[in-house]
Model the fold of this input.
Amino acid sequence: MKKQNKVFFLMFLAFFMCSNAFSVSIASQVVQHDTTHDEVRAISLLVEETFMDFFFERGFVITNLPAEISENSSQDKKALKSGLLSADEGMCKYFIQLVIDYKNNSNSPEAYLLSNIKDIQWKIYDVKTEQVLKSGKNIVGNIMQNENSENGIKSFTDEISNSVYKYLMEK
Done:
C-alpha cells in the first residue's frame, strides 16, 4: 500500500511539474483614455477581468497592474514604464497593455454599453527587451442592439484576447 501511495505521489508531482513547465507568465494593464472621467470606469474593469479570465482559463499565469487613467502621451509612457518594470519584477515573459479609448458623447457613460467604447488598442511587449512584438487595434463599429451590453463588452474583449492568444501560441 505504501508503494502505491508513492507512485500516486510521483505521478501527481510529475503532472504538476509538467503543467507548470509549459505555462507562460504574462502581466497585463488597462489604460483608460477618457477626458470625461477622473475615475476608472466599470467598463475598464470589466475588460480587465474578461481579459485575465480568458488567459487564466487557458493555463497562463497572469497578473495585472491596476487600471490607470491617462490624459496624454506622457502619462501613457509613464504607465508603460511602470507596467514593464512590474512585469519584470514579477518575472513575467510578456507584458500586454490594453488602451481603451472612450467616446466623449455618451448619454450613459457609467452603463455597461459597448457603444461607449471607441476602440481598444493592444500591444504585446517582450519584458526583457521592452520591444513591441505585436500590436493591434479593435474598433467598435456598428453594433446590434443586443450587443450593446455587458455581454457585448465581454465578446469584444474576447476577440482581442483571442488575437493576443494566437500570437503567444506561435512563440
